[in-house]
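Case study B.
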Amino acid sequence: MLQLTKRTEYGLIALVHMVDRPGVFVSAREICDTYKVPRRLLAEVLKTLSKAGLLASHRGATGGYMLVREPELTSVAQAVSALEGNPASSSCSPSPVDDSNSLFPILDSGSGCDMSPTCPIKTPIQRLRDGIWSLLQQTSLRDLAAPTAAAVNANPLGELLQSAQTLTY
Amino acid sequence: MLQLTKRTEYGLIALVHMVDRPGVFVSAREICDTYKVPRRLLAEVLKTLSKAGLLASHRGATGGYMLVREPELTSVAQAVSALEGNPASSSCSPSPVDDSNSLFPILDSGSGCDMSPTCPIKTPIQRLRDGIWSLLQQTSLRDLAAPTAAAVNANPLGELLQSAQTLTY
DNA sequence: CCAAATAGCACTGATTTGGTGCGCAATCAT
DNA sequence: ATGATTGCGCACCAAATCAGTGCTATTTGG
Ligand code: SF4
Ligand code: SF4
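Model:
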């Protein structure tokens, strides 16, 4: 129900872990020894992340994975997009927000819904999706990795979202 | 992949439709005659929405459903929450954001994950989820129904999110 | 009474998701 | 060289979720 998949979570954990190991290749073993993650599944996730261009891989005894870009240059959106396709809050048209940093093609099935022309919520729902997408885009790996976790607060939207959340609504 | 279910979409369409029919009971038939929605399924959705306290129902020949509150007093979050459980971007602890307007209990399974203590992304991921949740909360049925659709732009977060979205990232 | 509408319950089929098995290929330490 | 370690490719399974349906009972207006 509107939640990230386990695969994505594992991927994010791995990515965050690598933020603390800059410049070195870290193996899947190390990661799933640190956290309780099914080794085999994590391998699959890392593979995907690698093919998406977020990670560099190196085989062999001292092999592993390494962040390609600086932690602040990779967004959660890129990870999510790689692991579960471009986020959409509906089956509607492909995201107008083209993440130019992503190396993978947009694999949205176009406007899959058969009532696109008459749908009264199409446009507003897309705007909503773009809002979510924007949030994910604005959160970098650095934000996620922050120990004391300024996280979302680090970007201009953070405080607003936090305060908005406290509204009685 | 991080998207609303069909049920939720149908529910939102129905709700928006009722915004234009204030004060009268509108039948499921009318709605699924207007839009291409499986009648039987829509009925199920409306039932749920009704039990959640968002709609008032009336049986019999001239029966149907009607919005309980004003359109600006019902949020998309409430609809989503009723139709697919409280939004969460992870299997983590129940949402700290208690929507006091909701009449249904929070049915989160608590902290389902078995690595909650050691998980490095738990806190930031929750903050992310709260951001999304906040977005949904801030969008009212009125926003959704707006013909020219100011929608998300109508609330203080809208413009920021919109502009943020145009950043090269 | 009859037609129209919600309420309740159970159920099927398709899709997604979490997770695994296994052999192959590359690489490094010894 | 050789074996241990690591990633790669591909196929596969089981559980959960989701879209959608059937049928019957109950309420209500005409
Ligand atoms: S057109 Fe409407 S019902 Fe169809 S996918 Fe888009 S928002 Fe959903
Ligand atoms: S503790 Fe970490 S891995 Fe577990 S559900 Fe929460 S965010 Fe996901």
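Chain B has one domain: 6-165. The remaining cases will be described in the next quarterly update.
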